[in-house]
Amino acid sequence: MSDPSVLTLVLLVLAALTAGWVDAVVGGGGLVQLPALMIAFPGAAPVQLLATNKLGSICGTSTSSITYLRRVRPDLRTAIPLALLAFGGALVGALIASHIPRSAFNPVILVVLIAVGAYTILKPTVGEHTALRFSGHHHYVVASIAGFAIGMYDGALGPGTGSFLVFALVGLMGYGFLEASAKAKLANFATNLASLVIFVPQGAVVWSIGLLMGVANLAGGYLGARTAVAKGSRFIRIVFVCVVSAFVLKIGWDVIQQVRG
C-alpha cells in the first residue's frame, strides 16, 4: 500500500467510525469500511484490503460484544455454540476462499437479500419480541448450523455477515432484534478472529492502517451498541431494512456489471 494523505486518513477514520456504528446495531459495516479501503488504496492486493478490514472490524465487534454482554445479557447457552461454530466455519471459508469465484456468489446473495428484506418488511411484527421456534437440543442444533454456515460465508466472502446472523436469529429462530443483535455480535467477533488467524501469518495485514481504523471502529461499535440497547428492537429493525436495501442496490449493481461484462 502507498502512503496515504492526511485527507485520506481522515476519510478512512470517518468510514470506520460509521462502519462500527452500523455493525454494532445490525451488522453490515463492511458495506462502508471495505469500499473505503478499496477507494483509498486502488493498487493494493485484495488480500491486504480484506485482512486490514478484518483488523479494523474486530476492534468494533469486540467492544460492542462487551457492551451487549453487560447491558442485554444474552443467553450464553445459545451464543457460545453459535460463536464457536461460526469461528470454525470462518476458518473453513477462509481456506477455500481462493478456490471460489466471487462472481458466482453475487446472484445467489442478491436473491437471498431480497427475500430477507421482503420478509422483514411484509411482517412488521417480526423481531419485536422473542418467541422461540425451537426448544431443547433442537434450538442449539439450529443455532450451530446457522453459525457454521454463515461463518463459512464470512471466511469466503464476508459482506453482510452480521446482517445474515441477525436475520437467522430473528427469522429462523424467533428472537427479537435486540437479543439477536447481541448474539450475532459475539458470533461476528468470532468470524473476524478466525479470518485474522488465517491472514496474519500470511503477512497480509497492514497494521498501521488497520489499527487506526480499529480505534475509530471501536468508538463506533461502542456508540452503536449503546444506541441499539437504548432504542430497542423497533429501531434495530428499521436500520436492518436500510442496510439490507443498501446491500441489494450494491450487489444488484455488481450483478448488472457482471452481466454486461
Work out the count of structural domains: 1
Multimerization status = single chain
User: How much of the residues is beta strand, in percent?
Assistant: under 5%
Structural class call reads mainly alpha
What is the β-strand count? 0
Q: Whole-number average pLDDT?
A: 88
Shape annotation: globular
Major sheet attributes: none
Helical coverage, percent range: over 70%
Count up the helices: 10
Rg on CA atoms, Å: 17 Å
Membrane topology: Multi-pass membrane protein
Pfam families: TauE
Keywords: Cell membrane, Membrane, Transmembrane, Transmembrane helix, Transport
Family: Belongs to the 4-toluene sulfonate uptake permease (TSUP) (TC 2.A.102) family.
How would you explain this protein's 3D organization?
By secondary structure, the chain is mainly alpha-helical. The protein has one domain. It is built from ten helices and no strands. It has helices spanning 6-26, 30-40, 46-71, 76-96, 106-122, 136-156, 161-172, 177-199, 207-231, 233-260. The longest helix has 28 residues, at 233-260.
Task: Give keywords.
261 residues; 10 helices; 79% helix; single chain; mainly alpha; globular
Quick recap:
Its main location: membrane. With 261 residues, the protein is mainly α. The protein contains ten helices and no strands.
Write the layout of secondary structure elements.
Layout: H1 6-26, H2 30-40, H3 46-71, H4 76-96, H5 106-122, H6 136-156, H7 161-172, H8 177-199, H9 207-231, H10 233-260
Helix pairs in contact: 1-2, 1-3, 1-8, 1-9, 2-3, 3-8, 3-9, 4-6, 4-8, 5-10, 6-7, 6-8, 7-8, 8-10
